[in-house]
Amino acid sequence: MENYKITGRAGEGAHGFVFKGEDLRNDEVVALKKIAVNPDSEIPNNVLREILTLRVLKYTHIVKLLEVFAIGSSVVLAMEYLPWSLYEVIKNKNHSLNLAQIKTYCKMILKGVNYMHSHHIMHRDLKPSNLLIGTKGILKIGDFGLARIYDHEKKRLYSHQVATRWYRSPELLYGSKTYNKSVDMWSVGCILAEMIQRKPLFPGETDIEQLAIVLGTLGTPSCENWPGLTLLPDYNKISFSHSEPKKWSIILPDADCVTLNLIGKILIYDQNKRYTAKEALQDRFFRERPFPCRISQLPKLEESAEPPWNFGEFDEFFDGMTVESKGDVTVK
Question: Any catalytic annotation for residue 125?
């Protein structure tokens, strides 16, 4: 199948390399994600979930899946090419995010999450590096390898080993297997706070430290503010010193009261009282000055220069492809 030509390296995902490519049929720039599959076994669940999820979710703020095909023992996902992520925006010292820009990014994230949740899908790994940004500035949710369908009427059990640690909700840290879509909203709250202070809100280096930081910020939980707390699988495995909740105005001194109010309704222990994406979109945060800015007023990033090619480093990716010339590879 000779429809694509690789033109550069785009990054490396959890399950395979991602390359920048060109669709030779229409000259469209694409991202090609190649995932190695054991020829003696079935396609991994995470790969199937990502493919099936992206086929269902067709929305402005969800990355678009263009095509799926096999190369030897590997599966390749051809997706729209989005050169940047929110992580790069936050870390870029040349651009300081103002509140209007933060509101616009936050609104796009929430719209994507709301659409996703309305289709009974939870992402389970929302973080700045998975929030991709195109050349026109539109933000889209990507990397659905941990996505799952949920049904609140059926008591399904899910793995608690999901979400990147800094954005992992407290019920996950306590080993819950009966959580719901609100785990995504916890991540959104962490991301909003990170845009404001330009650094992670809860940067734990281990799961225990992560939980300690969360508890040290929100205060020691109780059955009053966290129903079912004592029933969580890991509740009795470790104890922490009692702590009082800190004021959000002290944690995020640069945020106004309206912003802090929104964060305070998202980052709470009780998953059933945590703001939904729909509720957050209706919050006064978006209806008070400064209003969300236009997408054209968001930071302008420059695409980084292509790194030098190292064919030895990417032998696995090139397996099953024809190398036409240095830096120029075409999919069979």
Answer: yes
Residue 33: its H or E element: strand 28-36
Rg (CA), the chain: 21
> Residue holding tokens 């899946």?
65
Helices vs. strands in the chain: H and E counts, helices first: 10, 12
Token look-up 């929030």 returns 131
Read off the pTM: 0.89
Q: Own/partner pairs for 299-302, CB < 8 Å, 24+ apart?
A: 299/89, 299/92, 299/95, 299/97, 299/101, 301/83, 301/84, 301/88, 301/89, 301/92, 301/95, 301/133
Q: What is the pLDDT of residues 93-151, one digit of tens each?
A: 888 899 999 999 999 999 999 999 999 999 999 999 999 999 999 999 998 988 998 87
Q: Three-class SS of residue 150?
A: coil
Determine which one of 23, 125, 234, 256 is catalytic. Answer: 125
| CB-count burial class (<10 Å; 0-12, 13-18, 19+) for 161 | exposed
Residue 165 sits at the vertex; the CA angle it makes with 167 and 38, to the nearest 5 degrees, is 115
Q: Quote the tokens at residue 85.
A: 């992520």
Closest CA to 112 of 272, 280, 263: 280
* Pairing mode of beta strands 139-141, 148-149: unpaired
Q: How far is CA 96 from the centre of its chain?
A: 22
Q: φ and ψ at 325, to 5 degrees?
A: -165, 170
Closest CA to 292 of 303, 280, 301, 274: 280
> Per the structure block, which two tokens stand in for 61?
């703020």
Asked if 127 and 167 touch (Cβ cutoff 8 Å), the reply is yes
Give strand pairing partners of 162: none
